[in-house]
Design a protein that fits this description.
Helix content is 44%, strand content 13%. By secondary structure, the chain is an alpha/beta fold. The protein is globular.
Length: 326
């Protein structure tokens, strides 16, 4: 599979762009464990044009995480074009246009998945951004606004005609948010459309290596994108890669090994931001990590982990958990 000048190995697996999740530390870990491409947190075009520092900080990328995409969202043509030009200056491998985020503060204002209610504007934005930059432009969107407005079949062709280099489809409507099951049948129909010649990346409910393989085998997608399943387990990409490449599961990836990875992520965030905010930023992953599930009488330890405000305190609790299981 190829996106612009980037050639990927067979059956690539991408890390989805996620707000407050795909910071540079997490991306580097996912890349180390086999993610074929990673994306920054999504970036508001309006905030970028206004030079909001917290937004500009999201544009920091490193060569060791390449190929890396930067995703922008907005509802104004001029702002999206200007934001794309600003993003291009930091040399991402692709610029992705977010027409899929379903949350109210984005979609409710007409951006993200809100664009599914204004297709002419979506296409105008896409067309103008493609013309404005030299880096490959891709799009991520959903099946439609709701079950009565499934438009992805026609929309995929329209976006392709705007000059995009790849299309990621989340197999839900905006009204579904993240509930129900992703409809991969519709993604497969787009992939099998003989008029579609750009790569189609499937997204939605990919949580296991078996599900990733099924997406490739049954629906013919060129790549899969994994989002929420990566919370608290950046090593998931190694599990995917080993399975897809026909390798046996790595026996060294036991509880202690995985805990070391989470501790490394914690230290990265503390060093990158500061102690208090670094811990806060890592809590989402600690709370979601499946490695703690099933541990007897873990509730009190879990509360202590989520209440810890100092690095030494949190590390001590995590080491206690390791010793108790040892």
């Amino acid at each position: 599979m190829q996106i612009g000048p980037i050639t990927f190995p067979p059956q690539p697996v991408f890390l989805a762009p996620m707000e407050d999740v795909t910071d540079i530390g997490f991306r580097l870990l996912c890349k180390r464990f086999g993610a074929s491409m990673v994306y920054t947190e999504f970036v508001s075009a309006e905030a970028l044009v206004r030079s909001v520092k917290s937004t500009i900080d999201k544009l920091t990328i490193r060569d060791e995480e390449r190929p890396v995409g930067i995703q922008i969202y907005g509802r104004d043509i001029e702002a999206m074009v200007e934001a794309a030009r600003i993003v291009e200056e930091v040399h991402p491998d692709i610029i992705d246009l977010n027409f899929g985020c379903p949350v109210k503060k984005v979609a409710g204002k007409g951006a993200g998945a809100g664009m599914l209610r204004n297709i002419p504007l979506m296409l105008d934005i896409t067309r103008e951004v493609v013309k404005a930059v030299k880096v490959p432009v891709t799009v991520k969107t959903r099946l439609g606004w709701d079950k009565d407005n499934i438009i992805i079949g026609t929309l995929a062709e329209q976006l392709q005609d705007c000059g995009i280099s790849a299309l990621t489809i989340h197999g839900r409507t905006r009204s579904q948010m993240y509930t129900g099951e992703a409809d991969w049948t519709m993604i497969g129909e787009v992939r099998r459309n003989p008029r579609i010649h750009i790569p189609i990346i499937g997204n939605g409910d990919i949580t296991t290596p078996e599900e990733a393989k099924r997406a490739f085998d049954d629906y013919g997608v060129d790549a899969v994108m994994v989002g929420r399943a990566t919370f608290g387990r950046p090593w998931l990409f190694k599990e995917f890669r080993d399975y897809l490449d026909g390798k046996e599961p790595d026996p060294t990836m036991d509880f202690s090994w995985k805990l070391d990875v989470l501790i490394e992520q914690l230290r990265i965030n503390v060093n990158r931001i500061d102690e208090y905010r670094g811990i806060l930023h890592t809590r989402r992953h600690l709370a979601a990590s499946p490695i703690f599930k099933g541990i007897p009488n873990f509730r009190s330890k879990r509360i202590a982990i989520l209440r810890a405000e100092h690095l030494d305190e949190l590390l001590s609790i995590l080491e206690e958990v390791r010793q108790e299981l040892g």
